[in-house]
Amino acid sequence: MGERKVLNKYYPPDFDPAKLPRARRPKNQQIKVRMMLPMSIRCNTCGNYIYKGTKFNSRKEDVIGETYLGIQIFRFYFKCTKCSAELTMKTDPQNSDYVVESGATRNFEPWRAEDEEADGLKRKRESEEMGDAMKSLENRTLDSKREMDILAALDEMKSMKSRHATVTVDEMLAALQRTSDDKEKRLEEEDEALIKIRMILLEEFVMKILKRKRKRRFGFQMGTLKLPVLVQRDKSPPKNLAAKQPTH
Ligand SMILES: [Zn+2]
Questions:
Q1: Do residues 82 and 46 touch, judged by C-beta distance below 8 A?
Q2: Per-residue pLDDT for 6 more than 80?
Q3: In this structure, what is the dihedral angle of CA atoms 166, 172, 178, 181, given to the nearest 10 degrees?
Q4: Which helix (H) or strand (E) holds 208?
Q5: Is 46 within any annotated ligand binding site?
Q6: Which pLDDT belongs to residue 1?
């Protein structure tokens, strides 16, 4: 069973690989490749939108005489899904992307425009600085200034955030204050009640002494005589303390 599928091949003793005929491939040979569209495009013929990720069969070929840093650029021929018009696109190794060559237009992608703008600025700056020490110094100074501005803005944002955080702490403190205030108020009320009771007791004590004095002087009790009122007496003293009042 082991020899059923042999992978090694027999080479006769007179085998010479140099004698093999070279397979001559034409330079613009096309290979069939099934792939997916790397970007959304619109057909110029029928106006049909073909979306990114659409699968299609294409013919791939080398773009003759076009390389980027020694990397071969490829061209793909494919057809519109609606009108079958031939569309072509190329690889773009410089931007690690693809470019539509003919038959269609690429849909607008805002991030791509941004990238292009940034690239353009960078290139412009480089060309300006080429051999101009003063300009490069100027640019670097501007860069550091911008960086400092950014840091300042960041600091400001941080402090704003911390300010927001302290608001909640303040609220917490206020809540604590409120509870302690309530406690104090309750204590004060209790104190007041105690003072009132003491005054009542004192008043009654004074009245008792006065009554006793009058009784000794006049030999009878003057029930009708108005006695000096020390404190406006509360008609209903607290129940629990009423029990403590001395009985006469
Ligand atoms: Zn079309």
A1: yes
A2: no
A3: -90
A4: helix 133-218
A5: yes
A6: 55
pLDDT of residue 134: 85
Sign of CA dihedral 157, 158, 161, 167: negative
User: Residue ranges per domain, the chain?
Assistant: 29-107
**Residue 207, phi then psi, degrees to nearest 5:** -60, -40
Contact between 101 and 86 (Cβ < 8 Å)? no
Q: How confident is the model at residue 112 (pLDDT cuts 50, 70, 90)?
A: confident
All residues with CB under 5 Å from ion ligand 1: 43, 45-46, 48, 80, 82-83, 85
Q: For tokens 């302290």, what's the residue?
A: 166
Distinct helix (H) and strand (E) counts, the chain: 3, 8
CA of 90 to the centre of ligand 1 (A): 19
CA 207 – ligand 1 centroid, Å? 117
Predicted local confidence at residue 147, as pLDDT: 94
Provide the whole-model pTM.
0.46
- Taking the centre of ligand 1 as the mean of its atom positions, its distance from the CA of residue 104, in whole angstroms, is 8
